[in-house]
Request: fold
Amino acid sequence: MKWLVSLAGAGLVVLTLRDLFHTLWHPTRHGGLSRLVMTALWRLARRFRAQRRVVGLVGPLAMVTVVGMWALTVVLGWAVVYWPHMPGAFTFSPGSQAAQEPALLDSVYLSLVMVATLGLGDITPDEGWLRLVSPLEALVGFTLLTATVSWVLEIYPALTRRRVLAVRLALLRDSDPTPRQIDCTAGALLLDGLATEVVRVRIDFTQYAEAYYFHDGEDHSSLAATVGYAATLARRGQAARRPEVRLAGDVLTGALKDLAAVLDQRFLHTGGTATEVFAAYAADHGRSPARS
Reply:
């Protein structure tokens, strides 16, 4: 019976590590826990009237919540591993009151000490397999810490790329270049550059799906509010006389369709055209789509 309880605790730890791996390192970046928490918080925040103030907290709050849940399940999982063998398989330092505490409390305490890599030494394992398992928990704790730091360092550059594209589209929307102004070499370079940035953002939504749940603030930095104008520029490029401009317009159109497909498949589920997906994207972020 003791080994069944310990195996249940080990299974909880493995499930947590699997979710961490799928969230941070798997090619599809499709972690179950992180996606569930962020989707739930996003939908909850959308119900509040003070939408922009509340929704702006969803992304950071969801990341903190997910990391906290990872840490909690790792600590509890290892505590369950120790629990059936406490106190018989452990040595307590002289004068320690730990042995007089409930076994579950001692197990949680030891798990916290090990996952935080403190190594206080007032409770130490005696049995050989526990002497191997305890340092392994410290290694998992260090991995959790470094994974959290890398997650933060990865997500914010992705947000910056998205906001740079949004501001660039907002500036172009304000200047509103005519079809004649786009029908030149500079216009082809402009459309090609936009296509490259759209592809980068599309990859970011695939690799960092949690970035979708971060609010972009003002309209000029909100891709949800400006991405529709990129389709307008693409259509103007496709109608140009110069072949290089038409080609750039086709490339931008393809990049936008690819971005819309990712947004619809992973977040919106409208089953509509690219224009309808971008309109749904704007509505989901509390924005009005860019004018055509």
Observations:
- The first helix runs from residue 2 to 24.
- Residues 2-147 form one domain.
